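To the wet lab folks,

You asked to see what we're planning to order before we commit. Fair enough. Below is the target structure as tokens, and below that is the sequence we designed to fit it. If anything looks off to you, flag it before the synthesis order goes out.
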């Protein structure tokens, strides 16, 4: 997955972006990734925030537990 922007939103320069360290924040069980870029042309910095759910497989797994109480009588 390539999230890197193609050009600088400030000066429009292509290929001059330096990716910096990505920060991660956990808010309400979700993981937010904050990407930082630095433009070597105009020396501006900008961020991109991406929501990355911590538990994708965690949705309604209660239905799988519907085992009908089929015990021996
Ligand atoms: Zn720039």
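Sequence we intend to order:
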């Amino acid at each position: 997955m390539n999230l890197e922007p193609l050009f600088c939103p400030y000066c429009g320069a292509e290929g001059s972006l330096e990716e910096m360290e990505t920060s991660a924040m956990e808010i309400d069980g979700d993981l937010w990734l904050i990407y930082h870029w630095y433009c070597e042309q105009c020396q501006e910095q900008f961020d991109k925030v991406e929501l990355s759910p911590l538990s994708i497989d965690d949705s309604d797994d209660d239905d799988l537990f519907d085992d009908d109480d089929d015990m021996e009588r």
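Structural context that might help your review: The beta strands are 17-19, 23-27, 30-39, 45-53. Residues 8, 10-11, 13, 39, 41-42, 44 surround zinc ion (CB under 6 Å).

Thanks,
Computational group
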